[in-house]
């Protein structure tokens, strides 16, 4: 299966209170002592190095950031590395501000210093404040864990989009699953940020990525196989796809964190997986190896290409038109059925 990533109804809020009394909400997994209650000076792109707005290694000048909160644009280097760069230069806090490339997607990280990640719109307001206020200040605080977040799920901005460029007739991704701020086991041989200078030890960490959503779907496949040992991989895939849902917990269509707009099948595929319904989907669309071969033949691949793909030198495309039509019809029904497809 091709798996995309969505958010959970759980969040880890953090706040940036600016000197103009405006308070903006972001996310963070920072678990240290914090900044206290006194605002400090806020800086953005004050160094002579043109990459200082990105907080790349070696780009910040200590005399400009020491004892201050630094606004860092998201992009190029790792989010947690930016905090390490700020700390190494003497900064005591960071506001990680999204740009157009990352939109409104918020990913919580175990930063090395007090830090909050904010979306592009809030980031633009903070950048404008820093550049136009004669004495910009900021105070970062943290809100712990919040449940029942609405709306959720939301398709993650980092989740790859379809269609399948080789064969656009096949809808991709197949489904989405939980992939943002996922709690999982973690090796104590490395700190939660993965940075060399991070000496903290933890048996658990919270990570984001399609590498987090894929194990969820793999686990669901194992669950369905245990419940229905006779099901083929295609039947399991069908059950997960035909029972996926496309409405969030506000009963509205799924949204896309990339720009805040409504999501579409090229972002969420059939929808977000629903384990309980997948156990008893009512109908599954199975498919055999011969059906796949027939589909490849219908794409006018050469016989050599088909044989290379299926790794069976004795395969031929000498099938009647009805077989090919049936194969194509099955594929279409699988990708365009009811219950979220």
Plain-language structure description:
It holds the Pfam family PA. It comes from Prunus yedoensis var. nudiflora. One of its GO terms (biological process) is response to symbiotic fungus. This protein folds into 3 domains: 9-142, Glucose Oxidase, domain 1 (3-Layer(bba) Sandwich), CATH 3.50.30; 154-188 and 204-279, 3-Layer(aba) Sandwich (Rossmann fold); 289-326, no CATH class. The two termini are 15 Å apart. It has helices spanning 62-65, 79-88, 120-132, 210-227, 233-242, 265-268, 275-278, 289-298, 303-310, 321-336, and strands spanning 3-6, 10-11, 13-18, 23-27, 40-43, 69-73, 93-97, 115-118, 137-142, 146-147, 154-155, 175-178, 182-185, 204-207, 255-256. Helix 4 (210-227) crosses helix 5 and helix 8 (289-298) crosses helix 10. By secondary structure, it is α/β, with parallel strands linked by helices. Helix 1 links the parallel strand 5 and strand 6. A 7-stranded mixed beta sheet has the order 4-3-9-5-6-7-8, sandwiched between helices. A two-stranded parallel sheet has the order 1-12.
């Amino acid at each position: 299966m091709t798996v995309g990533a969505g958010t959970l109804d759980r969040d880890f809020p953090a706040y940036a209170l600016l000197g103009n009394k405006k308070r903006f909400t972001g996310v963070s997994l920072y678990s240290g002592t914090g900044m206290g209650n006194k605002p400090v000076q806020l800086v953005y792109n004050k160094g002579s190095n043109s990459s200082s707005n990105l907080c790349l290694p070696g780009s910040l000048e200590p005399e400009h950031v020491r004892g201050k909160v630094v606004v860092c644009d998201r992009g190029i280097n790792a989010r947690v590395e930016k905090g390490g760069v700020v700390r190494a230069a003497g900064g005591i806090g960071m506001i990680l501000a999204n740009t157009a490339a990352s939109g409104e997607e918020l990913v919580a990280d175990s930063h090395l210093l007090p830090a909050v990640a904010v979306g592009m719109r809030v980031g633009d307001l903070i950048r404008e404040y820093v550049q136009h206020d004669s004495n910009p200040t900021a105070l970062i605080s943290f809100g712990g864990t919040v449940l029942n977040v609405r709306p959720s799920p939301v398709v993650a901005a980092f989740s790859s989009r379809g269609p399948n460029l080789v064969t656009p007739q096949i809808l991709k991704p197949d489904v989405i699953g939980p992939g943002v701020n996922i709690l999982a086991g973690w090796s104590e041989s490395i700190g939660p940020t993965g940075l060399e200078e991070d000496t903290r030890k933890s048996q658990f960490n919270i990570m984001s990525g399609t590498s987090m959503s894929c194990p969820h779907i793999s686990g669901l496949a194992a669950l369905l196989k245990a419940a229905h040992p006779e099901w083929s991989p295609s039947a399991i895939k069908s059950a997960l796809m035909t029972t996926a849902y496309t409405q969030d917990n506000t009963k509205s269509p799924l949204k896309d964190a990339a720009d805040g707009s409504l999501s579409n099948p090229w972002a969420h595929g059939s929808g977000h997986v629903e384990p309980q319904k997948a156990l008893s989907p009512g109908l599954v669309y199975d498919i055999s190896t011969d059906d796949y071969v027939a589909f490849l033949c219908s794409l006018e691949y050469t016989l050599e290409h088909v044989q290379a793909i299926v790794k069976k030198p004795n395969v031929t495309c000498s099938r009647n038109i009805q077989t090919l039509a049936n194969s194509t019809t099955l594929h279409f029904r699988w990708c365009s059925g009811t219950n979220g497809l």
